[in-house]
């Protein structure tokens, strides 16, 4: 009997040693992954201390090697080829081989933020996505062209180094579950570049900018609770909680080599307003860039759309947040922002998830193509307020990024004008390309300020020569 027990013990010990000998990879390094082309791509994992891990790749004869550290971790940087649809593989060997198959070299972008980025192509309940069926039909021809990896939304008190996820090739079965904004971004990118596009979706609906900041930045810039019990007491809705979503949902991807970050967030910060939002967002971008360790990664983000916040279309809570977002773009290096003032239908006043996701994704793609891929003729900037001159009863508005023209000469909507009493009235607007936008109202004989779509829900109709909408603005600081 004792001899049998000894034999079983030896077999179990052998099995344990066998399992320990094989390298373990993070889930994001898996079959069907897209690696960033022509880069030194970071690969990592875990193994037995002291073991040598050799990494070989199908596109090169070079063999990379590294040693597992005392903490059980190993890292190696691998040079990747130019983008193509040619399937590749990567072999990890520490005495036993682990093979990652059907790898493609292409462009990898992160899709971060809250629910309007998370919103899948099939939509949320009572929140459809325009163009869904067309996109699903087309997805059948994009299997080797677009791939995505969805990171499960998870909270954690400490940063996680792995997440249960996998890379999926876009097809008619799984594309309904992909981020709609991400999909429309990737589709336009693939059409323009004809190379594989990979998306890493790390987002969570309802989150605030504070939800993604790490402990050090929260301590330095906010008064947010950082003890788990205090966090739960202060925020009954888990998606509003600080720290936890960044640790659990974003930290696992920080080792991956990417091209840039797409970000759509802000709605929850209307409910929890902060005059410091722009600086918090700038801090978050710096935090993520430091985490990826790839320098000033492109950061392209989306201004929140019109919505009836607090059941008040005429309120200004959301307008101030949009203003903070526009300010953030001016202080974040290598960043750009998309205007969505026209991406809502008039009947969607109470819809926090408007159905028009295609123009949002495509405008992000146009920025990326212009700034990162040599498409200099793509005009990707929305017009913005530059300055105002007052002449008698008329305020003359000058714009920048109008590409030498705007879209109309009459029927201007969304403008308001006020005098010293700070009461705003609907304005009449005329346009002369030699002068500018001339704003006036019979009710305001001595104007001092102009606002454009500076409400929770107010739709304008001014576009620049590229048919991109004018950013909401105000000339006052009231």
Automatic annotation (TrEMBL):
Segments forming domain Sialate O-acetylesterase: 107-368
GO BP field: carbohydrate metabolic process
Protein name per the record: Sialate O-acetylesterase domain-containing protein
Xref: InterPro entries: SASA, SGNH_hydro_sf, SIAE
A molecular function (GO) term: sialate O-acetylesterase activity
Pfam (any one): SASA
KW Hydrolase (keyword) present: yes
Keyword terms, alphabetized: Hydrolase
């Amino acid at each position: 009997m004792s001899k049998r027990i000894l034999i079983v013990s030896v077999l179990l010990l052998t099995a344990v040693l066998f399992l320990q000998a094989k390298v373990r990879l993070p889930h994001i390094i898996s079959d069907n992954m897209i690696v960033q082309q022509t880069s030194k791509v970071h690969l990592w994992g875990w193994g037995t201390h002291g073991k040598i891990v050799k990494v070989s790749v199908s596109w090169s004869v070079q063999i990379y090697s590294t040693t597992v550290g005392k903490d059980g971790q190993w890292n190696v940087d691998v040079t990747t080829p130019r983008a193509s649809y040619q399937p590749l593989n990567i072999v990890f060997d520490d005495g036993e081989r682990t093979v990652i198959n059907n790898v493609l070299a292409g462009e990898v972008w992160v899709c971060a933020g809250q629910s309007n980025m998370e919103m899948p192509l099939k939509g949320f309940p009572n929140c459809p996505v325009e163009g869904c069926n067309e996109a699903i039909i087309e997805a059948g021809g994009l299997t080797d062209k677009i791939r995505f990896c969805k990171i499960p939304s998870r909270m954690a008190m400490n940063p996680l180094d792995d997440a249960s996820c996998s890379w999926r090739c876009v097809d008619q079965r799984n594309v309904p579950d992909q981020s709609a904004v991400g999909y429309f971004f990737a589709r336009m990118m693939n059409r323009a570049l004809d190379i594989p596009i990979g998306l890493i979706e790390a987002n969570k609906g309802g989150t605030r900018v504070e939800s993604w900041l790490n402990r050090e930045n929260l301590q330095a810039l906010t008064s947010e609770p950082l003890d788990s019990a205090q966090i739960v007491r202060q925020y009954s809705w888990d998606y509003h909680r600080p720290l936890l979503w960044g640790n659990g949902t974003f930290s696992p991807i920080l080792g991956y080599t990417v091209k840039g970050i797409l970000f759509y967030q802000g709605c929850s910060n209307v409910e929890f307003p902060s005059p410091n939002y722009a600086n918090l967002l700038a801090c978050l971008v710096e935090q993520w860039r430091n985490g990826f360790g790839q320098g000033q990664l492109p950061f392209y983000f989306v201004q929140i759309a019109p919505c009836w916040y607090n059941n008040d279309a005429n309120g200004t809570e959301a307008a101030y947040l949009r203003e903070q977002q526009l300010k953030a773009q001016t202080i974040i290096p290598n960043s750009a922002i998309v205007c969505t003032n026209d991406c809502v239908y008039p009947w969607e006043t109470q819809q926090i998830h408007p159905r028009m996701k295609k123009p949002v994704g495509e405008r992000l793609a146009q920025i990326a193509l212009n700034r990162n891929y040599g498409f200099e003729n793509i005009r990707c900037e929305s017009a913005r307020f530059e300055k105002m001159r007052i002449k008698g009863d008329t305020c003359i508005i000058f714009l920048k990024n109008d590409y030498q023209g705007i879209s109309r000469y009459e029927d201007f909507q969304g403008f308001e004008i006020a005098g010293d009493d700070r009461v705003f009235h609907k304005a009449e607007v005329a346009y002369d390309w030699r002068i500018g936008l001339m704003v006036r109202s019979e009710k305001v004989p001595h104007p001092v300020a102009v606002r454009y779509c500076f409400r929770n829900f107010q739709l304008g109709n001014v576009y620049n020569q590229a048919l991109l909408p004018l950013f909401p603005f105000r000339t006052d600081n009231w």
